Automatic annotation (TrEMBL), chain A:
A Pfam family that the UniProt record links to this protein: bPH_2
Organism the protein comes from: Streptomyces lavendulae subsp. lavendulae
Name listed for the protein in its UniProt record: Bacterial membrane flanked domain protein
Lineage: Bacteria, Bacillati, Actinomycetota, Actinomycetes, Kitasatosporales
Automatic annotation (TrEMBL), chain B:
Coiled-coil blocks: none
Ranges where the YdbS-like PH domain occurs: 79-158, 424-497
UniProt xrefs under Pfam families: bPH_2
InterPro entries to which the protein is assigned, alphabetical: UCP026631, YdbS-like_PH
Protein's recorded name: Bacterial membrane flanked domain protein
Length: 166, 516
């Protein structure tokens, strides 16, 4: 190893689908919006208490909108994946970011998951688990076709390796 | 690999005899019913013979539940049978829901015997066979209520079969394979495992809840009233000190009792080649066997008080010990013992001359890691003091002073912990092991075999990214699943990963000219 060089983690090669931004926005709105909507409705109908619900509405709405505006785009910039002949490599997260590498020889099961919201956007998620309880690689926000191909490739690669992968 | 199928081959020789559970189990089952009867009697005495409908209903439903449980257990006793053939263990049970299970001998990872006090009174024990499947709890099989003799015999036969199939030599029974035995001098460490104090709260809470359910208000009991009268007139600080003292005393007594119960008769040995066995427990006897093939390292844990007293505990890092809860109790190799002894047992267990947890030269982590820990101390002390100051500004200046003094005191204590936590941090690649150490409240030094690492997880929070740090997690099938090297400099962390498992992370790492 050369001493005058710094090592850096290279981001995985493939981005997830742009549609994933829409999916994450919708998903975050389910958490962020119900509270301000409740306050808004109360503000509309309980006129004497408007001085309370007005500020509450704003206090609940602004952070929620910020979250919905920032998180999906940030995630899109971080979430990436890559599969080589030896390993799967994926990055995820936004404030807390996570990079995972699992050698194909250690992958035990490959699952594909499409939640109702993901289906709405035509997206799929893949989980490749290893024998470690903490070692699963999750790739979310892939196109259906890409996901299916990836699952096939992963399954083929893991079958090629004998042993119980522990 | 042979599949773990429920259907046994038809051409199996039918000469093997079916074994059954011991009939004495019937008595154990009967005794379950004794609990509600005893509770009922106790309530009658406590309330002075006045039984209201509520108590009656509670006790009756309790009794019925216990009767049903006893009935189910009796059914199990009647319908369960097992046998060992040349290559597998078979267990049939149930009448209405019939289950037939068969496990190839090759897949067996461990055979454990556990006996609770009730079982021991009747000379019974439970045998549990675990297989390699970590994910599914239904992976193994268990036989509850064998006579001790049958269970020992069964275990001996299984181990012989396994050894014959794997071509290993059975150990000479005269050979003394003891690695460690209980020394009652270790009892001095027992009070230093903090959770005794927590145990007091749990005990008090559950007693209060039970009494409350039985419509007895504990605060109205004579004993409590008496205490209240005697101490009610004392100043508050005295009362608080007294309560604290009482809690500490009960906590110490509790942890000592837990130690005696959990570790009485402790014996760590190697009964046969390639197998570690821990036997312990005074009332509930436990016996855990760990195949050395499944052993991936060792972890030395030093809770704060224990560390100050120079003690440590040793845990095995092994796969196939069950889920997280089971793993944490079954992986224990020693009670709290002197640190040097823990290290030497670690060396014996791993088959090394000196334990990698002592010998490795741990590299310190960058100063930024210390800054993170100091910041955390600062944030916590401010967060705790802020409500006091806020209330003080609103109500009275006394609280403001209390607030900032609290903050200063907390920060000083926190800073001391931060420095300690920073000094604890360290990592190294030492021979076939990756060694990592961290933590202040419980300092853990883990040595993980490098070929047991089955992936890397790198996490970076926003703060870590700004400080140029990362947390490197070595994923493994053994122990807690991931062993972390916390807050290491990016370049050092990636180099460490490359050193530990050459070639795995390398394709995803790029080199950039140094910035300085």
């Amino acid at each position: 190893m050369l001493d005058n060089q710094e090592l850096r983690l290279r981001p995985p090669r493939n981005r997830v689908e742009t549609r994933a931004i829409g999916w994450w926005t919708l998903q975050s709105s389910l958490f962020a919006l119900p509270l301000p909507i409740t306050f808004g409705v109360l503000w509309l109908f309980i006129t004497p208490a408007r001085f309370v619900f007005g500020p509450l509405f704003l206090v609940a709405l602004v952070p929620g909108l910020l979250f919905m505006g920032i998180m999906p785009v940030w995630r899109y910039r971080v979430h990436r994946w890559e599969m080589t002949d030896e390993a799967v490599y994926a990055a995820s997260g936004w404030l807390w970011q996570r990079w995972r590498v699992v050698p194909l020889s250690r992958v035990q099961t490959v699952d594909m998951l499409r939640g109702p919201l993901q289906q709405l956007f035509g997206l799929s998620g893949i989980t490749a688990t290893s024998a470690s309880s903490a070692g699963a690689v999750k790739i979310k926000g892939l196109d259906h076709r890409t996901a299916t191909e990836l699952v096939e490739k992963l399954t083929r690669a893991t079958q090629a390796v004998p042993g119980d992968a522990t | 690999m042979t599949p773990d199928s429920a259907v046994r081959p038809a051409d199996q020789t039918e000469t093997d005899e079916w074994g059954r559970l011991n009939p004495r189990l019937f008595l154990v089952n009967l005794s379950v019913v004794a609990t509600p009867l005893a509770t009922f009697a106790a309530t009658t005495v406590l309330t002075g013979g006045e039984i209201n409908l509520q108590v009656l209903i509670t006790c009756a439903s309790f009794l019925i539940t216990c009767l049903v449980i006893a009935g189910i257990s009796v059914m199990r006793l009647i319908t369960t049978r097992y046998r060992i053939t040349d290559d597998r263990v078979e267990l049939h049970k149930g009448r209405f829901f019939r289950s037939e299970r068969s496990i190839p001998v090759d897949r067996i990872r461990s055979v454990d015997l556990t006996a609770n006090p009730l079982h021991r009174v009747f000379g019974l024990t439970s045998l549990k066979i675990a297989t390699g499947d970590q994910a599914t709890s239904g992976g193994g099989l268990s036989l509850d209520g064998l006579s001790v003799h049958d269970a020992e015999e069964l275990r001996r036969r299984l181990s012989e079969l396994r050894h014959a199939r794997q071509g290993l030599a059975t150990a000479d029974p005269d050979d003394d394979a003891t690695l460690a035995r209980l020394d009652w001098a270790w009892l001095r460490y027992a009070p230093l495992t903090l959770w005794g104090v927590g145990g007091v709260f749990i005990a008090v809470g559950s007693v209060y809840r039970t009494l409350h359910e039985m419509k007895v208000d504990p605060l109205e009991l004579g004993v409590v009233k008496d205490l209240e009268e005697r101490f009610g007139s004392l100043p508050l600080w005295y009362g608080i000190l007294l309560t604290l003292a009482v809690i500490v005393v009960i906590g110490v007594a509790g942890s000592t009792a837990t130690f005696i119960e959990g570790w009485g008769g402790y014996h760590l040995d190697r009964p046969e080649t390639g197998l570690l066995r821990v036997r312990r427990g005074l009332l509930i006897t436990r016996s855990v066997s760990i195949e050395e093939q499944r052993l991936r390292g060792a972890e030395v844990a030093e809770p704060l008080l224990l560390r100050w007293a120079g003690g440590a505990r040793l845990k095995a890092v092994a796969s196939g010990l069950g889920d997280e809860d089971e793993n944490s109790s079954r992986s224990r190799l020693t009670p709290p013992v002197p640190r040097a002894l823990a290290q030497s047992i670690a060396a014996d267990v791993l088959g090394e001359r000196v334990s990698p947890t002592t010998e490795a030269q741990l590299a310190p982590h960058p100063r930024a890691a210390l800054r993170r820990r100091l910041n955390r101390a600062l944030i916590w002390s401010v967060l705790i003091a802020a409500p006091l100051v806020g209330l003080g500004l609103w109500l009275t200046p006394v609280l403001v002073h209390t607030g900032w003094i609290t903050a200063v005191v907390l920060f000083c204590a926190g800073a001391a912990f931060a420095f300690d936590a920073y000094r604890s941090l360290g990592h190294a690649v030492h021979g076939p092991y990756l060694v990592t150490r961290s933590g202040t409240f419980t300092r853990r030094t883990a040595a993980l075999q490098r070929d047991g690492i089955i992936g890397w997880t790198i996490t970076r929070s926003a703060f870590q990214r700004r400080a140029g740090l990362l947390t490197l997690g070595a994923a493994t099938a053994a122990g807690s699943g991931v062993y972390k090297v916390r807050d290491v400099a990016v370049s050092d962390g990636l180099a460490l990963a490359e050193d530990a498992v050459p070639g795995l992370l390398a394709p995803f790492v790029e080199r950039a000219p140094a910035r300085h």
